[in-house]
Design a protein that fits this description.
Number of domains: 3
Strand order of the largest sheet: 12-11-10-13-14-15-16-17
Structural class: alpha/beta
CATH topology of the largest domain: 2-enoyl-CoA Hydratase, Chain A, domain 1
Strand content: 5-15%
CATH superfamily of the largest domain: 2-enoyl-CoA Hydratase, Chain A, domain 1
Radius of gyration: 28 Å
CATH class of the largest domain: Alpha Beta
Shape: globular
Number of helices: 28
Largest sheet: 8 strands, mixed
Bound molecules: acetoacetyl-coenzyme A
Length: 698
């Protein structure tokens, strides 16, 4: 027997205890241990039942994801589930913590299931680009019915024990030590004369409108194929005998296993965990974090304050004038109302947070006791310096002083204080209580425990924190500026903004760049163009047609008109016909003859621009690893998760092909398409971006 499974006897019950920390993933040795223990229980005299339990914090969190993509090792999971189910002994699962994916499939292979009241079950495989491949698509619908199984499998959501009981996934809820509860339940079943009850022998679930369901799920997946493919597997459960259904499930599972989407989604799974795991912070303790200060109560400051309040931190918010104090309170309370409505906090908590935990003041002296301050005032160096000089005077020694700047030089801001080691950038994304990304910007003199405190804050707020170096735009906005520029060039050369938006939404982005510009406000880009005009490189191509619209006071969604026209009460907009005329006028002025672009070329140029700039960002050390770029784009910029991030996308395309395209585009515009040295180096060495993730990417 392997060391991952402990076998013990409790009278006529054999207990199989899985011991594979941290979450009892079903690695080869666990599967082998279970198979051998079943053989032993069946061979031993006097055994009438088998109880399967998990050690530690979970029953089983699923297949071992690190084994994906490697040659399969016996015994495979589907056979193991069938083997457990076919046992002449009564087999019971006692579930606690999570039972996910293969974990729930093992439980469904058992004849009865008992769970703790806090247990959660689910089949989340679609989020990894696959479908439940060990009988889950065949057994779950036999216990829940087809409709409920479609909902559970295509969303992959965690189902809490009471709902699981209602759906028939578990048979009983009982609180206590999982092994004691399991033995007690198994004994009662034996005493009541219960016999093995294989789910595979239950009747096929009734059919639903499979084609309509498939189409609806495909549409909702925005290009992700695993949920829709899972619908076809559940259909097989309804239409075919169990054995044939299992075969169909296996075929569809193997199809998905071989997709790029599976690779991208698994890259995302591991790297959203690896990204905050910095080798240089091992053993560095963060500073204490009980309360924070926020300077500025606009949309950003109010969002940061909301996130902090919701995570249990005390908040002192500073505004300049009494009217602004009231407006800030209103914004925060509006955000918290949302949390109240969604059931995230109770009315009592809402009242305490708004009247006691949150303090709003006009005086910096109120910041004397806070552990960290985030400044979210106007993006102007002189304003930031003034604020930091005041913070330096008001805050206690050891207080972390953070700026939420999106592009300004954090070193220069730190120099405005007498304690640059305590200064850091914490770049939140708006709305800050919703968006998952936090860029932790480390300046030249930032102390390691201040960096650790930035990451600790990110964790408390439930963010994905990424370490970034100082440069214009850090990781995300710097790369964004480049791929936005590529989109602008394509417009000048003949692709319409509407075609570009559509091509990129079809690629999987939540929104196209021009719809995003309308949402963010066209005045922002307009101001940036004016700010950068004086220092712009002479070869840089910058379209200015949209400035005509800004000059007339049209700034996108907030004014009702931008690239699109927005009608009150309607979601989304319709293309603004003026845009085509403005573009034509600029093309004539510049002497450009517009040409046609295919959607494929649009995506390729956009992505190549993104990857090339990202390679420069990694090459310069602004991002420590390619995975940091991938997670930044995934969690802050709506990049489709199933591609894993731009660097993973480039690896999948082949870096030599990406570089070749960049070199072709460089023939038209050598300045913009200057290949990143790191990209050239990797191609020359035959390596990938993933190779640079130093064992973090699997
Ligand atoms: N395989 C391998 N490692 C896993 C794992 C799995 N299924 N699930 C979690 N881990 C690892 C994590 O990578 C992490 O490792 P590090 O500490 O080295 O970073 C560690 O276990 C703890 O995980 P979390 O940090 O995520 O801990 P958590 O308490 O926040 O969450 C969890 C625990 C809910 C189980 C979460 O990890 C999770 O959702 N895991 C994935 C579950 C899943 O998708 N299962 C289905 C697998 S596919 C399958 O089963 C296919 C099939 O049918 C053949």
């Amino acid at each position: 027997m392997t060391d991952k499974l402990a076998y013990s006897r409790h009278g006529d019950i054999a207990v199989l205890r899985i011991q594979n920390p941290p979450v009892n993933a079903l690695s080869q040795s666990v599967r082998q241990g279970l198979a051998e223990a079943m053989d032993r229980a069946e061979a031993e005299d006097g055994v009438r039942a088998v109880l399967i339990v998990g050690d530690g914090r979970a029953f089983i969190a699923g297949a071992d994801i690190t084994e994906f993509g490697k040659p399969p090792m016996e015994p495979n999971l589907p056979d193991l589930c069938t083997r457990i189910e076919a046992s002449p002994l009564l087999v019971v699962a006692s579930m606690h913590g999570v039972s996910l994916g293969g974990g729930l499939e093992v439980a469904l292979g058992c004849h009865y299931r008992v769970a703790q009241p806090t247990a959660r079950v689910g089949l989340p495989e679609v989020h990894l680009g696959i479908l439940p491949g060990a009988g889950g698509t065949q057994r779950l619908p036999r216990v829940t019915g087809a409709q409920a199984a479609v909902e559970a499998i295509t969303t992959g959501r965690h189902i809490k024990a009471p709902e699981a009981l209602e759906l028939g996934i578990i048979d009983k809820i009982e609180e206590g030590d999982p092994q004691d509860v399991g033995i007690h339940y198994t004994r009662a079943l034996l005493d009541g004369g219960a016999q093995p009850r294989p789910v595979s022998q239950m009747p096929n679930p009734e059919g639903i409108d499979w084609d309509a369901t498939y189409d609806a799920v495909l549409k909702k997946g925005r290009g992700q194929i695993s949920p829709a493919t899972a619908v076809r597997a559940i259909q097989a459960a309804s239409e075919l005998p169990f054995d044939q259904g299992i075969k169909r499930e296996r075929e569809l599972f193997m199809e998905l296993m071989n997709t790029d989407q599976r690779k991208g989604l698994i890259h995302a799974f591991f790297n959203e965990r690896a990204v905050s795991n910095l080798p240089e912070l091992k053993g560095v303790d963060p500073r204490q974090l009980k309360s924070i200060g926020v300077i500025g109560g606009g949309t950003m400051g109010a969002g940061i304050a909301t996130a902090a309040l919701l995570s249990g931190l005390g908040v002192v918010l500073i505004e300049m004038r009494e009217e602004a104090v009231e407006a800030a309170k209103g914004r925060i309370s509006g955000n918290l109302q949302g949390a109240l409505k969604r059931g995230k906090i109770s009315q009592d908590q809402f009242d305490t947070l708004t009247t006691q935990t949150l303090k709003v003041s006009t005086g910096y002296d109120s910041l004397a006791d806070v552990d960290l301050v985030v400044e979210a005032v106007f993006e102007e160096m002189s304003v930031k310096k003034e604020v930091f000089a005041k913070l330096d005077a008001a805050c206690k020694p050891g207080c972390v002083l953070a700026t939420n700047t999106s592009y300004l030089d954090v070193n220069e801001i730190a120099a405005a204080t007498s304690r640059p080691a305590d200064v850091i950038g914490l770049h939140f994304f708006s709305p800050a209580h919703v968006m998952k990304l936090l860029e932790v910007v480390v300046a030249d003199k930032t102390a390691p425990d201040v960096v650790a405190t930035g990451f600790a804050l990110g964790k408390m707020l439930g963010k994905i924190s990424v370490k970034a170096g100082v440069c214009d735009g850090f990781i995300g906005n710097r790369i964004l500026a480049t791929y936005r520029a590529a989109a602008g060039h394509m417009v000048l050369d003949g692709a319409s903004p509407f075609q570009i938006d559509k091509a990129l939404v079809d690629f999987g982005f939540a929104m196209g760049p021009f719809a995003v510009a309308d949402l963010a406000g066209l005045d922002i880009g307009w101001a940036t163009r004016k700010r950068k005009a004086a220092t712009r490189h002479p070869d840089e191509r910058v379209p200015t047609y949209i400035d005509r619209l800004c000059e007339q006071g049209h700034f996108g969604q907030k004014t009702g008109k931008g690239y699109y026209i927005y009608e009150k009460g309607k979601r989304g907009g319709t293309p603004n016909p003026e845009i085509d005329r403005l573009i034509e006028a600029e093309q004539q002025e510049l002497g450009i003859t517009p040409r046609d672009f295919t959607d494929e070329e649009i995506v390729r140029r956009y992505m190549c621009a993104m990857v090339n700039e990202a390679a420069k960002v990694v090459g310069e050390g602004i991002a420590a690893r390619p995975l940091d770029v991938d997670m930044t784009l995934l969690f802050g910029y709506g990049f489709p998760r199933y591609w894993g991030g731009p660097m993973k996308w480039a690896d999948i395309q082949g870096l030599d092909a990406v570089l070749a395209d960049i070199q072709t585009y460089a023939k038209e515009d050598a300045w913009f398409w200057e290949p990143a040295p790191l990209l050239k180096q990797l191609v020359a060495e035959g390596r990938t971006f993933d190779d640079l993730n130093k064992g973090n990417a699997k």
